[in-house]
Design brief:
- The chain has about 525 residues and is an alpha+beta fold.
- The protein has 3 domains: about 5-110; about 115-255; about 265-525, Purple Acid Phosphatase, chain A, domain 2 (4-Layer Sandwich), CATH 3.60.21.10.
- Helices cover about 40% and strands about 20% of the residues.
- The chain has 17 helices and 22 strands.
- Strands 13-12-11-21-22-19 form a 6-stranded mixed beta sheet.
- Helix 4 (about 125-145) packs parallel to helix 6 (about 195-215), helix 6 runs parallel beside helix 8 and helix 7 (about 225-230) runs antiparallel to helix 8 (about 240-255).
- The chain is elongated and about 85 Å long.
């Protein structure tokens, strides 16, 4: 390749490569990029390699001005120094070619990781360690930089036993979606070879440990459960692939079942939810509750009405605790009546001790107060509640369907249309949600989202519905009372209710515990 001028811009480490080394590599034949061999890449880059080095050029980036080219490359050098995932030999340069400055980089030639696994028949401990190291690098980078590396195995290389990232591209963080898709690809491609149920279980334990380690301090996120939900929603063929996928999801949901004895509560929550999800294909009425928020008098009024109507199925869309003074009593009562519950943002905060970013000072105060009131087992129960329920065409979450974390985003006027579009794109007709505390059903009319608040609604009359039963324990729609809904799933008939109760009783307990005045005022006014 003809080179008119070449300038070194900088490297990951302090030492700079010799220009002669770059020139020597560029005299080699251009590498053909494809799906096989050492080099897998995009057509927008050009690769040259000898036994010692690999040079990657970006011919699409053609700069007429040397200073602009130098600045563009300098920006990449700075980011890569901060990334701490690249080999110390990596250097960036600019070169004059056919009247333009072309950016490029040179790195010591490393052993491609993808070739190791393509030739593998049985996963040995050293292979498990390598997958674990790749996962750790990926997750560590995501937490530190809030962006993601390219997940493909071809983007990682080894120098001896040290792992490095090879690709130039960095992507926006997507809350594990691309990583979950990669794992699903591994399962489909390798489960008949080295990624069988045993090796998947071993890897899943490593993955679960990494997720807890790197994301334990990230507010409003249960990384293991988020990944479990993403994988659970993907298609896997029956047989070894499905068995491997089930093993992976099980460890993410329940922990290492081979070494942890006390996980029955977690498993039972999911088993109960899986069994309960079948009710959404029947027409027996279900009481739909949300945002109980530790308000015992309101909950008792609702459950009395439910019992009076002979309804035995009770589904809670999260936030059993928070805001109110009766966290223990509400948890016990709901469990005693056999209610099936999802996890809300307040449940997560109290259960994990990890406050959600969006929480106000009063909600954070109540969460901290609740933590002191609850036994360890109660907090474990909250922490291990499932994040969502899928029983097509039904979906249920605490927050919003579009929310990748399941309990942080809201459905309201400005977000309803986007959430309806998400439901349609993903094949759901109906979504149950809480979190907003605003009772009603969003539907599309004339391409606009409107909120229905009738006491009886025929959901089957609409293509897609976003259903909020309102809040049992803390109304915000201007009506004082305990709001909930009764649903007949098969016929898609919904009844919205709001029952009066003695607010003074719960306020008296809040005064005794010196709750923030704002929380007491909201119970009196409903706003």
């Amino acid at each position: 390749m003809d080179i008119e001028t070449l300038r070194i811009v900088g490297g990951v480490a302090e030492s700079l490569v010799a220009i002669a080394d770059i020139q020597q590599v560029l005299q080699q034949e251009q590498q053909q990029l494809g799906r096989d061999g050492d080099f897998i890449g995009k057509s927008t880059t050009t690769l040259y390699a000898n036994d010692a080095h690999v040079v990657k050029l970006h011919p699409v980036q053609r700069f007429a001005d040397e200073q602009i080219a130098f600045a563009w490359v300098g920006h990449h050098v700075k980011k890569e120094c901060e990334a701490k995932v690249y080999h110390p030999s990596r250097n960036w340069f600019i070169m004059m070619h056919e009247g333009h400055w072309i950016p490029g980089n040179i790195t010591q030639r490393l052993q491609p990781v993808h070739n190791i696994f393509e030739m593998l028949d049985v996963m040995l401990p050293e292979h498990l360690k390598l997958l674990s190291d790749i996962t750790a690098m990926y997750l560590d980078y995501a937490v530190r930089v809030e962006k993601r590396l390219d997940e493909g195995l071809s983007n990682f290389g080894l120098d001896g036993d040290k792992l490095y990232y090879l690709d130039d591209d960095i992507f926006e963080w997507d809350h594990f979606h691309a990583f979950s898709a990669l794992l699903a690809g591994w399962l489909r491609r390798y489960s008949l070879k080295w990624f069988d149920t045993v090796s998947v279980n071993q890897f899943a334990v490593c993955l679960n440990n990494h997720l807890h380690h790197y994301f334990q301090d990230v507010p409003g996120l249960d990384a293991s459960q988020v990944m479990a939900e993403q994988l659970h929603g993907m298609f896997f063929p029956d047989g070894p692939v499905q068995d491997a996928a089930t093993a992976l999801v099980s460890v993410l949901r329940y922990g290492d079942t081979s070494t942890v004895g006390n996980i029955g509560g977690t498993q039972q929550n999911f088993k109960d939810l899986d069994e309960f999800s079948k009710c959404f294909h029947e027409d027996e009425p279900i009481a739909i509750l949300a945002d109980v928020h530790a308000n015992l008098p309101a909950l008792e009024v609702v459950l009395t009405e439910v019992r009076h109507r002979g309804i035995e199925r009770i589904f809670v869309l999260g936030d059993l605790v928070g805001y109110g003074p009766h966290p223990k009593a509400c948890i016990d009562l709901l469990r005693n009546v056999g209610a099936i519950s999802l996890r809300g943002n307040h449940d997560h905060a109290v259960g994990s001790g990890n406050m959600v970013r969006s929480m106000t000072s009063s909600s954070s105060w109540t969460a901290e107060w609740s933590i002191q009131c609850l036994a360890k087992e109660d907090r474990k129960y909250l922490r291990r509640l499932p994040l969502r329920m899928i029983s097509r065409p039904w979906l249920a979450v605490h927050g919003a369907p579009v929310d990748k974390t399941f309990f942080n985003a809201y459905v309201y006027n400005r977000t309803a249309k986007a959430n309806i579009a998400w439901l349609q794109e993903h094949g759901f007709r109906f979504a149950l949600h809480g979190h907003s505390h605003l009772q009603g059903v969003y539907v599309l009319q004339a391409d606009e989202a409107i909120c229905l608040k009738d006491s009886h609604i025929d959901l089957d009359a609409y293509q897609t519905s976003l259903i909020c039963p309102g809040s049992v324990g803390q109304p915000r729609g201007g009506e004082v009372g305990a709001a909930f809904a009764i649903l007949k799933p098969l016929s898609a008939q919904l009844e919205l209710l709001c029952l009066p109760y003695d607010v003074s009783e719960v306020i008296q307990d809040m005064v005794i515990e010196q709750f923030p005045e704002q929380l007491m005022r909201r119970l009196k006014t409903g706003v």
